[in-house]
Amino acid sequence: MIDGAAAGLRKAVRMRLTAAERARYEDDGYLVRRGVLDSSEVASLREVVEDVAARVAAHAERPHAGPEMLLADGHRIQFSSRTAIQWEWRSGSREIRLLEPVTHLDARLTLLWDDPRLVAPMRDALAGGAVGPYTCKLNLKRPREGSRFPWHQDFPYWYAFAGNHARDIATAVIFLDDASTDNGAIRVLPGSHKDGPAPRDPDDATGFLADPARIDPRREVVVDAPAGAVLVLSSLLLHRSSPNTSARQRRALLLSFQPAGRPRQVELDWRPDRVRDLP
Predict the structure, then answer these.
(1) Cβ 135 vs Cβ 85: under 8 Å
(2) 222 with 185: CB under 8 angstroms?
(3) Rounded to an integer, what distance in angstroms lies between the CA atom of residue 252 and that of residue 91?
(4) What is the pLDDT of residue 193?
(5) The domain spanning residue 194 has which CATH number?
(6) How many CA atoms lie within 13 A of 239 on its CB side?
(7) First to last CA, the chain
(8) How many CB atoms lie under 10 A from the CB of residue 128?
(9) Which residues fall within 8 angstroms of residue 204, CB to CB, at 6 or more apart?
(10) The domain containing residue 14 runs over which residues?
(11) pTM
(12) Contact by Cβ (8 Å): 170, 232
């Protein structure tokens, strides 16, 4: 057992960010690691998330399954299976675009929180201390239907729950399909995390999106990433995603980590009034 523990420790150390990766993350606010998961692991996770999505959708269709409401921007959200279901934006669609939280819906997803290939680099992204879960999502951009998402930071959404602790959260995006421009790639504004909370769009009914008039789109970088890659993303980095106009899937699991010992998002109160303190 001692030899096994030592081997596990050595493996975790190898998974830590290199000095060059740490410098890149600090400068850019994001980092892509390719080949983190092999093809068999990706295939297995695809099966898991499709099973989860099918079960959640079937349960949500039952009478009295859970309340459904319109958000301020007119998009539909439903609470069922102890998760928030964001349905696709097209009128009448019953395709799921996002589930949050998601790892509690399958034990194989829960194991990801302890995977050293995720935990070790996230420790470095969050200044080196022990880390724990904050929230998690399944993002589905279905062929020719997956919708775009405008410029935003994760920070204001999390600030409404966690206040200034939102600065101490970062996300590992696990790509389950090759992501490119035509199937809804994530687009980032390198270095934007250094400017702190971004001015929000005065025309946005939700009050959380970034003001596109204050963003230089020429600085945008498309994150082309193969299946099995992991994107590490700062909570303050400006990013968006394009629609899926292709015939291909673009599925991703998002695990957001924070310093260990802090409450998860589901344990906190939603206080959208807090964002009035932000630009």
Answers:
(1) no
(2) yes
(3) 24
(4) 98
(5) 2.60.120.620
(6) 25
(7) 53
(8) 11
(9) 73, 150
(10) 2-277
(11) 0.94
(12) yes
In contact, 123 and 260? CB cutoff 8 Å: no
pLDDT, residue 190, reads 98
d(CA 267, CA 279): 26
Rounded Cα distance between 133 and 263, Å, is 8
Structure tokens at 186: 């994530």
Residue 239, pLDDT score: 98
Count of domains observed in the chain: 1
- The series of mean pLDDT values per 10 residues for the chain, 279 residues long, is 46 82 98 98 98 96 87 87 93 91 98 98 95 98 95 98 97 98 97 97 94 96 98 98 97 98 98 92
Q: What CA–CA distance (Å, rounded) separates 62 from 4?
A: 47
Joined together, the tokens standing for residue 171 give 């996300």
Burial class from Cβ neighbours inside 10 Å (0-12, 13-18, 19+) for residue 65 reads: middle
Half-sphere exposure of residue 185, counting CA atoms within 13 Å on the CB side? 16
Query: What pLDDT, on the 0 to 100 scale, is given for residue 155?
Result: 98
Task: At 255, list the tokens.
Answer: 């695990």
Contact between 33 and 230 under an 8 Å Cβ cutoff? The reply is: yes
Are the beta carbons of 244 and 185 closer than 8 angstroms? no
